Amino acid sequence: MHYASRALLVLGLAGCQAAPDRAPPPPTVDTVVTADGTPIVYDVRGGGDVALVFVHCWACDRSFWREQLDAFAPGYRVVSLDLAGHGSSGTHRAVWSLDGLGDDVAAVVTDLGLERVVLVGHSMGGPVALLAAGRLVGRVEAVICADALHDVGMEITAAMVEPMVTSFQADYAGTMQQMVTAMFPQGADTAILAWVTRKGASADTGATIGLMRDYPNLDLPAAMAAAQVPVRCINAAPRPPAGPVTAIDRNRQYGDFDAVLMDSVGHYLMLERPAAFNAKLLDLLAALRLPPGADRP
Questions:
Q1: What is the DSSP secondary-structure string of 262-287?
Q2: Secondary structure tally for the chain: helices H, strands E
Q3: Which pLDDT tens digit goes with each residue over 71-111?
Q4: 172-204, pLDDT tens digit by residue?
Q5: In this structure, is residue 250 part of a structural domain?
C-alpha cells in the first residue's frame, strides 16, 4: 500500500468528520435519459484522472455508498447513480433486466465522457458492473465488487427464484425484513440494520420483483469474459451457516479474478465497517496501479 495513497484517504475522512465548517462541497446532480426513455439520476464529486463509479445493490440506491463517496473524492472523480427502478431514477421500464441496468451504468459513463473508469458494485451491482464493462471496453480499467461474485459458475434457476418471488408478493415488507436481518451478523449495529430494512421495504416492487425473476437469465461467465478487465472483490468472510464462500480458484477459470475477505461483517460491509472497507478498496486500487490522482502508467 502506498503511504501517500492511504494518507490521502485518511485526510479525506478527517476532513469530512472532524471539521463540519469545512465540509466537502455538495455533489453535482444530473440526469441522463436512456435509450428506452428512462431517466437515470446520478451525482458527481471530486476530481482526478480515474473515475470511481459506484453501483448499488438490489432494492437499494446510491445512498448506500454514503461512507465512501466523500472519502474518495479527494483523489478520484467519484460518481454514484440510482439504477432504474431505484432511488430517484425512473420506475416505468417495460422490461426489467440486469442487462438493462448495465445499460444504465454505461449511459452515465458515456454522458460524463469518462475515459478511465473503475466500476465498484455491491451485491447485484457486481454483475451489473460486469455487464456495463462489456459495453465500455477501452474505458473501464477494472471492476471491483463488494460481497458479490462468490461463485461465478453457479447456475441460478427459475425454480430457485420463484419461491422467493412468491414470498415477496405475499408479504413484501415482512420478507424484506427477514432477508435483510439474515444478511447481518449477530451483534450488528441495529440502526444500520433498521435503515437498510426501511430502504428495502420502500423500494419499487415492480422493479425489484422483475429483476429477481430475471436472475436466471444472467450468464456471469460470459459477462466476465466480455468485460476484459481485472475483477476484484471485497467479500465478507463466511459466517456459517449463512455466509457464502468465495470460490476464488474456481472464479479464476473465467477471467482475471481475485478477492480479499473481511471478518466480522455481513452483506453490507461498506456500511458496517466503512473504514476497513475503504482501506481495502484503496489497497486494491493501488495494486491495480490506480492510486489517487495517478496518471496512466
A1: ESS--S-HHHHSHHHHHHHHHHHHHH
A2: 12, 8
A3: 999 999 999 999 999 999 999 999 999 999 999 999 999 99
A4: 999 999 999 999 998 999 999 999 999 999 999
A5: yes
* Tens of pLDDT, residues 201-229: 999 999 999 999 999 999 999 999 999 99
Sequence-separated (6 or more) residues with CB below 8 Å from residue 149: 126, 127, 220, 231, 233, 246, 251, 257, 259
CA-based nearest residue to 121, from 262, 249, 234: 234
Is 297 part of any domain? no
For residue 179, what are the domain limits?
3-287
Residue 51: its H or E element: strand 51-55
Q: Is 272 a member of any domain?
A: yes
The pTM for the full model equals 0.91
Q: Domain for residue 210, yes or no?
A: yes
The amino acid sitting at 96 is W
Give the position of cell 476484484: 232
